[in-house]
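PROTEIN SPECIFICATION:
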Amino acid sequence: MAIRSQEDLSAYVEFVSARSHALYRTAYVVVGDHQLAQDLLQEALVKVYVAWPRLRDVGNAEAYVRRSVVTTAISWSRRRSYHERPVDPLPDLERDDGTERLVTHELLWEHVCTLPPRQRAALVLRYYEDLTEAQTAELMGCSVGTVKSQVSSALAKLRVQVGPVAGVLPDDEAVTR
């Protein structure tokens, strides 16, 4: 079943036009690859298109898409082919802008991409999307305690991998709030 009325179609098109850029950013941060993020968002938007007439509150469509992005990314990561990359990473390019912030961001991002999908999703939703623990739990389809555990484990791994980089990672006190 897909959108049947012109009103539903107009509302869907308006939603996609207004929110697709933000949803793409979420998909990119979850999977760490531009092309995969485009595919992931497209799949999530197709699911919303099909479910649009059944949505009780169209205002929650964005949460539905985010949850779909997270769950689809997790299921994709379980496939053997997901971990295969068709090309080698690009060699380091010289940076004209050598600010410490950019270097730290790139280093941190490389390590975030190595986290397991659920930990990466929890971290992205909590700190990049700035959602509460309850909202993150709802989107991930788990308990608040699981979100806390996933975020804590992810941050612990990042602290070990990255080392002491002042002000980049939230401290333990901020995680438990």
In short: The chain has two domains: 1-81, 97-177.
